[in-house]
């Protein structure tokens, strides 16, 4: 095996080790969070996303490693396609979020208002995961409603108009609505809380996105050192180039002074 290919396989092997440690780290933290604070659904949800992201990165590196080590053409093509797809999705989503900021905000407002109106309804059992996420947001950020706690007056599924979701209070009861006094209810809306959190962590989020793009670009450049993998992915072109080079060297070896070459 060529020394370049050995170095390339070693790089992918390091990627696999790093990815495995990354996933293991998030899994350990996830179980630690669940065991210490199982009511913090939002944190658990975030760590599930992180574990899924780490697993996807690990799988992508594994595809590249197997494709190079075993010289499997279709696996390398799949790896390149998935890598370009991941980069494209990140770029498109980032561009849409910044270019369509107002539309995104309006869609967010409409979605939250719709969830608040249908929250706790027996007619929409399929929306329970959305209600759980809303509960997690309200519990984590200690907020209530989108603008403030009065947004819950739009909900018609309460037993009485004074009720608010248990996630809007310090209550540990596992039900949709609770009867709690106003001084035990979170009064501030979640929109302001989330905006404050976003502005405080915007640079971190941009850094994470930029870091992922850089790592994917490096993976793409590592994939094709000196054209070795390009020739592996396109063996027909490689054989044609090799044949052309061989014929050219043969022609150059023939002296033009030999009989039959005089002008």
Automatic annotation (TrEMBL):
Chain ranges passing through the membrane: 12-33, 45-68, 75-99
A GO cellular-component term linked to this record: plasma membrane
Subcellular location: Membrane
Top-rank taxon, per record: Eukaryota
Topology in the lipid bilayer: Multi-pass membrane protein
Pfam family, one: Tetraspanin
InterPro entries the record matches: Tetraspanin/Peripherin (IPR018499), Tetraspanin_EC2_sf (IPR008952)
Keywords linked to the UniProt accession: Membrane, Transmembrane, Transmembrane helix
Protein name: Tetraspanin
């Amino acid at each position: 095996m060529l020394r370049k290919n050995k170095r390339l396989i070693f790089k992918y092997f390091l990627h696999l080790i790093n990815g495995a440690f990354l996933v293991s780290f998030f899994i350990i933290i996830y179980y630690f969070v669940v065991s210490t604070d199982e009511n913090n659904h939002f944190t658990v949800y975030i760590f599930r996303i992180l574990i899924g992201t780490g697993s996807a990165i690990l799988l992508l590196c594994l595809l590249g490693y197997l494709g190079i080590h075993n010289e499997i053409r279709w696996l390398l093509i799949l790896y390149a396609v998935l890598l370009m797809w991941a980069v494209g999705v990140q770029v498109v989503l980032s561009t849409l979020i910044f270019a369509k900021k107002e539309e995104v905000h309006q869609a967010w407002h409409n979605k939250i208002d719709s969830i608040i109106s249908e929250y706790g309804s027996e007619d929409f059992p399929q929306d329970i995961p959305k209600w759980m996420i809303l509960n997690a947001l309200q519990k984590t950020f200690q907020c209530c409603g989108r603008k403030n706690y009065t947004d819950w007056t739009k909900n018609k599924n309460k037993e009485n108009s004074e009720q608010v979701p248990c996630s809007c209070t310090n209550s540990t009861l596992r039900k949709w609505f609770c009867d709690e006094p106003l001084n035990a209810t979170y009064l501030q809306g979640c929109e302001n809380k989330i905006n404050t959190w976003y502005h405080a962590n915007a640079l971190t989020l941009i850094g994470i996105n930029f870091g992922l793009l850089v790592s994917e670009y490096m993976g793409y450049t590592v994939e094709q050192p000196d054209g070795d993998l390009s020739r592996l992915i396109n063996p027909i072109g490689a054989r044609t180039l090799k044949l052309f080079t061989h014929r050219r060297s043969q022609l150059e070896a023939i002296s033009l002074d030999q009989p039959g070459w005089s002008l």
